Amino acid sequence: MIETNEKVSKQLDVPPIYDDEIVKKFSLAALAFAILGMFFGVWIASELAFPFMNFDLPWISFGRLRPLHTNTVIFAFGGNLLFAACYYSVQRTSRARLFSDAISNFTFWGWQIIIVLAAVTLPLGITRGKEYAELEWPITILIAVVWVAFAINFFGTLYKRQEKHIYVANWFFMALIIAVAILHIFNGLSYPVTLWKSYSVYSGLQDAMVQWWYGHNAVGFFLTAGFLGVMYYFLPKQAQRPVFSYRLSIVHFWGLIFIYVWAGPHHLLFTALPEWTQTLGMTFSLILLAPSWGGMINGLFTLRGAWDKLRTDPIIKFMFVAISFYGMSTFEGPMMAIRTVNALSHYTDWTVGHVHSGALGWVAMISIGALYYMFPRVFGKKEMYSTNLINIHFWMSTIGTVLYIAAMWISGVMQGLMWRAVNPDGTLTFTFAQTVAAMHPYYVIRLIGGIIFLSGMLLMAYNVFKTITMVEGNENNQSNLVTA
Predict the structure, then answer these.
(1) Phi–psi pair at 372, nearest 5 degrees
(2) Given this model, what pLDDT does residue 8 score?
(3) What is the 3-state secondary structure (H, E, C) of 199-220?
(4) Which of 52, 76, 214, 430 can bridge 72 by disulfide, Cβ–Cβ 3.0-4.6 Å?
(5) Which residues contact 427 (CB under 8 A, 6 or more apart)?
(6) What is the pLDDT of residues 183-193, one digit of tens each?
């Protein structure tokens, strides 16, 4: 039946019947896990500001909740959003229904099972101890299986596309799928000892090198390339403007994917890693600034002729600020990879501030904009329930992010300076306990920023609920956004 509909659609030159049911599932899951993951983040931030908040319970200690927080916000929130955005946009840019409804549903339920397994194992202390790759070997295998199914569905859709051209957003999604598969599989190679314990096939320095080849490129391809695909599709759609420069977007793509894979060693400066490898990582990190800012410029200039929408359309505000944070984060990262800067910043809260300027400012905000775009369309509504609530959410997100990262920047620079301060006789000026005490006010400010950001997500959940349940023509429908 689906094949027949597509043949008729092609003959009549009308879009085929898209599968938006799967987009609904992933979008709702993304919103739910955004709230849950950010709640975990607020909780561990409260533990750092007020240590009694762990209540001496090992399964809610910082060491166990922190990987749960990172996995939930990156792979549960970010992953579900990427599935939703990819499935939504690839159908429309290909003018073809997804390759297989069965595979679509398998990827959804498989991904949710992975998330549940992570939520159970990490608080119990079952972990490989690798950043962004903590999950033990049975879950690691399941991730690979689901991801390969995702690849089959995506590339199968492109194969049956009715449009000859492959739009640039799909290029970034292709990079996401291929690179993450390679990174995950090779970093996940391990020797199982028991059902829930394994050891990496790599050892010592080689293990560290492979881990940060994976770790940095998980940021580069999962949290950057994937969400650039989101930007390149949803920003022009919401602004109703073409991409500023399609040629620049292609240069951005090739520059980014070639350079990013070499930048991982900058996480291991001043370690046992060979100096030439450290220098290679630092050099490519600096070069990475060029394609990154090319993408930022392309995104911002796409709004040429539509700047007035920044006053009236809060979804455009989310996307504009997201791209601005992308530019700022991709400037700060290369600067922090320089040895002299890294000597001050490494192991301090400055790194935490940098990570969250990208995570909250770039990833979360572009995701929120995409979700606000998709929700009314996939649920058959003309617009969101309330534009005013979206606008309030925007300001809560912006204020929360600025409070968070500013507090961490100040705390981090202060930490670095206090750690390296010495007396005339060569002894340390400050004890470690004194540096911890000095950081406390900034930890409280970070907690406040996190609470504000989380509250904005709860407001979004209310707006989405009202959108889904409202009757068309309801007077409570306050928005005036462009319809699909």
Answers:
(1) -65, -30
(2) 47
(3) EECCCHHHHHHHHHHHHHHHHH
(4) 76
(5) none
(6) 999 999 999 99
Separation between Cα atoms, residue 375 and residue 382, nearest integer Å:
10
Q: Read off the pLDDT of residues 425-474 as tens digits, 9 standing for 90 and up.
A: 999 999 999 999 999 999 999 999 999 999 999 999 999 999 999 886 54
Of 212, 481, 211, 219, the closest CA to residue 369 belongs to 481
Residue type, 460: M
Kind plus residue range of the DSSP H or E element containing 413: helix 387-420
For residue range 3-13, list pLDDT tens digits in order: 445 554 555 45
The DSSP bridge partners found for residue 194 are 197
**DSSP conformation class of 264:** G
Maximum pairwise Cα distance, the chain: 85
Kindly report each contact of residues 289-293 with a partner whose C-beta sits within 8 Å and lies 24 or more positions away, as own/partner.
289/330, 289/331, 289/334, 290/255, 291/251, 291/252, 291/254, 291/255, 291/256, 291/259, 292/256, 292/326, 292/327, 292/330, 292/331, 293/327, 293/330, 293/331
The pLDDT score that the predictor gives to residue 374 is 98
What single letter denotes the amino acid at residue 30?
Answer: A
Give the model's pLDDT for residue 7: 52
Helix 101-121 vs helix 79-94: crossing angle, to nearest 10: 170
pTM as predicted: 0.93
Phi, psi values for residue 191, rounded to 5°? -100, 110
